[in-house]
């Protein structure tokens, strides 16, 4: 089969690899939808002088189980099961793994599908059976792909925060994670302030229910947030863009006793403790979601009737990979997905 491999310097190729065969405890999933994630761009853009990756990309997998290896356990390790994949695998014996957080495993090196092992930008993908998460019949494969990382990441952050309908949340960045956060926050009854430098994304956020939108390029983000919140600031700030300026604006836009949650990768943050100490802020980081969180997110989407398919503005075939990532690299518009 052929799958997408990033070669750095904004290049990629469709590499040919053997079709996967499940080993002990594994299954093979026929991929129906594989989402494009903003973190893909770190590998897509990496300098070509770096060691070239040897694995198929894609860590938002969704599809159907077509082969089951010996000893593969669990209710979803059966041929024909509609599944998402929690794209991490650990030792599965330590407390972190047993609690549904294999990405936090400290006992053995974790496997990140699409980085350390072949991912979902291919017709088939081999995974550990214990990474499978059921996909409700009422959800499309595209929606399952979104929940497998981007939307699930927004859900995981709100779980960490403890978001409620009483909150006003400022969401920095309206890419796939930020737009997912806007949808989820509105469904939970929160007031949403959406921020992005791209007009198209701001307009999409407004269409998704954002109560106010802000263009951060005017240089007065914190003032704008306070104008909207009658001088207090947002009770919750979620930073998804990974921009250094956004991290600083996030700290300056939150209310006293408020929570700042940092999700975006790619920048460094430093701040004066003296400036923020008396604000009693809670500063969190959040890394995707647990296996249980992924399923809870899917259940919530079904219960609330959230149309996650509206996140996707671009649907591609694998043989359009070059064009797809060139478009995605412009970071304008919504989310892209490969359909098999």
UniProtKB/TrEMBL annotation:
EC number: 1.1.1.1
Domain Enoyl reductase (ER): 8-338
Cofactor: Zn(2+)
PROSITE patterns assigned to the protein according to its UniProt record, in alphabetical order: ADH_ZINC
Keyword Metal-binding: yes
InterPro entries in UniProt: ADH-like_C, ADH-like_N, ADH_Zn_CS, ER, GroES-like_sf, NAD(P)-bd_dom_sf, Zn_alcohol_dh
Stated name of the protein: Iditol 2-dehydrogenase
